[in-house]
Write a structure and sequence with these properties.
Layout (H helix, E strand, L loop, with lengths): L8 E6 L48 H16 L10 H19 L2 E4 L6 E6 L2 H24 L4 H23 L1
Antiparallel strand pairs: 1-3, 2-3
Helix pairs in contact: 2-3
Protein name: Protein FMP23, mitochondrial
Organism: Zygotorulaspora mrakii (Zygosaccharomyces mrakii)
Length: about 180
Amino acid sequence: MSSCLARSFSTARITLSRAASHRVLIPPTSHFNNSASHSIATNIPRHEYKQLPENSNYIEKFYDELRLFSTEFLAKQLNKSYTDFENDPDELVFQVEKFIELQIIPKHSELRESSTVSPMQSVECKTLSDQIVIQRYLDFARGVKKTLMFNGGHTFIFDAMLQAKEVFDSFQTQKAMNK
C-alpha cells in the first residue's frame, strides 16, 4: 500500500499591492524628495574602501545570484551595473530586495487564500527546492548588505568579482581544452 505525501511550505500574510510575501521593503531615503529625509542617516556607512578579509564568505558563495541579478534585472530592466550604485549603496540593497520580492518569490511560489473570512493569503512553495531557492536569494540579499557594510559601501566590488570569476572560468576552460 503506497501513500502519496504532499509537502507544502507556507507563510500567512495580507496581500497589499504587488507584494509577494509578508516582507516589508522600505525604500532608501533617496526616494523621498523632502529636505527632512536627507538628514536621516543611511543604513550603509560610507567610508574609504576596505578589502574584505580572506575568510569572509558573505558574498563569494553567491556568484550565480550576483550574475543573474546583474544580467536579468540591473542590465535588462534598469540599464545599470553594480558600479552605477556607488553613490547610493542603499538603493542597490533596495533593488535586490525588490527583485527578490517581485520576481524570485512569485516564480518559486503560489499565493493561496487562507480562508474566506480573512483577507490573509499564504505564499506556498510546491517543492523543497523552491523553498531553498527563495531562502538562498534572501541570504544573497543579506550578503550584499553585509559586504557593503564592511567595505565602506563600495558597490564596484560586485562587478569586479563577476569579471574576475568570468576570467577565471575561461582560464579553467582553456586549461581543460589543452589537456
